[in-house]
Amino acid sequence: MLERSRRKKHTEITFVIPAGQACGQVSVVGDFNDWQPGAHPFTEREDGTRSVTVTLPKEQRYGFRYLAHGDYWFNDGHADDQDGHNSIVHT
What we know:
Isoamylase early set domain-containing protein; 5-stranded antiparallel β-sheet; 4-stranded antiparallel β-sheet; Glyco_hydro_13_N; Ig_E-set
């Protein structure tokens, strides 16, 4: 799931994964961090979901995926779009 906070010059995107999905450490990787594993790790919220917030320039399109422990890649079913293997977010 994606949560957005739009500002004048940028958009804060909060990537959220449900409680109980993917064991171990999970990070979001994508065009915005040169696909670097661990650059944006998820942290657990009080309700058991996990999230990470990334600040991105407005009016852009970014491919991304989630990477969990054990080289397990997965997409966000609530992303703005899909492009081949990647989820897409529009700022």
